Amino acid sequence: MVGGEPLPEDFDLSLIKDTVPPAVLSSDEAEDSNEKVKRDMVLGRKVHTSCLEVTEPEADDEVTGEREAYMASVLARYRKSLIERTKHHLGYPCNLDSDYGALAQLQHFPINNLGDPFIESNYGVHSKQFEVGVLDWFARLWELEKNEYWGYITNGGTECNLHGILVGREIFPDGILYASLESHYSVFKAARMYRMECEKVETLCSGKIDCDDFKAKLLCHKDKPAIINVNIGTTVKGAVDDLDLVIQTLEEAGFSHDRFYIHCDGALFGLMMLFVKHLHQACAPKVTFKRPIGSVSVSGHKFLGCPMPCGVQITRLEHINALSMNVEYLASIDATIMGSRNGHASIFLWYTLNQKGYKGFQKDVQKCLKNAQYLKDRLVDAGIGAMLNELSSTVVFERPHDEEFMRKWQLACQGNIAHVVVMPNITVEKLDDFLDELLEKRKTWFLDGKCQPYCIASDVGQQNCLCTVHK
Ligand SMILES: *Cc1c(COP(=O)(O)O)cnc(C)c1O
Fold this sequence. Notes:
By secondary structure, the chain is of the alpha/beta class. The protein has a domain at 106-355: Type I PLP-dependent aspartate aminotransferase-like (Major domain) (Aspartate Aminotransferase, domain 2, 3-Layer(aba) Sandwich). It is built from 16 helices and 11 strands. The strands form 2 sheets. It has a 7-stranded mixed sheet, with helices on both faces. A 4-stranded antiparallel sheet has the order 8-9-11-10, covered by helices on one side. The longest helix has 39 residues, at 343-381. The structure holds pyridoxal-5'-phosphate.
């Protein structure tokens, strides 16, 4: 496969011993020598064996046109493979549904939103007017006034988390980072990068943060401020931490509002959540700056369907101003993590928001939740253990026994579970195709009783497991 598959969200880079495989091994031998790590690397095959070598132009290429024809054929094949891979795309949350034809006219401009979106630099080829328009939209959604927020379009959810946690750390240099075990790995990466003390908090089987454990850990460090990563949709189970309970727990443990900083990692559901609340009035903990939170982020390439990785980060202007008081310091952090930033992403986001609007997203969210419920019900009806958290469109189920099947459908797996994140581009027909094939395959996997469905009780609770023991 040209280009290779994307890595799973929870891919552990430490599993790769040697990123460039020795050239003498055939791909079969290479797999054998990696037997131990193979299972965990199902979707992380090494790309090097299938890479497209750069070949130097020949002197007469320009005359014969051979080179152009060669490159055109490579691209055409690549495009075909993308279409194919897109058709069977279920495991990774990205919305492939959008049409951006109108933006093609801009693609050759080197649009760069260098540094702070609110400060014009000397570089004129930027799209900060679009960027700030997008930021305004999100700030309004999360209920922060125009003159009270600061934010920027990042390179993705990871950069948002790096920024949110950095702001927290700068406000509380001796603060301890608290994050549930099911937080995205970028949160722990931030802790390592910033050399922060980090407390990993247990989770419930839904994947939500366990606030009893959180409280116990807070009480061990009452002398130090707390920086908390709250998940608005965990990567694997789509669990939404109970923001209100997290705040209440902090208060009960004796942390006044000036002694904690909350970053809400809404990469996955940060936007979807706002629309879910209309369906589940009672149980949606609203993400809003009316509550004592410091920052919120959302990915642009997941639910929003932007074709390049990007994210939206919103924080309180007072925090950024406090950090920027020291001018020397401003020069070093420059408020954004990255210097040069992708200006195209802002335009794509702006375009999507204009195209869909609040109403359009609402419809998309309803479709996602309905289709997720459909998938979960059909899995359970077929005797396959599955879980769907309320407020979520992530369906978690028994890991399939066939690695080729998982590769085909690009399912992200962790231990005994796999998941499908139902995004607006995933139709009932696509889910039916997937289910039909899964049920067909299952017949062969369990044919002579040689293998059994995986037990997923420890991942999602006994009540959601349909293995032979828990049926
Ligand atoms: C996807 C995701 C991220 C990271 O986003 P990237 O854009 O891949 O950097 C962070 N947090 C959660 C919960 C996610 O699902």
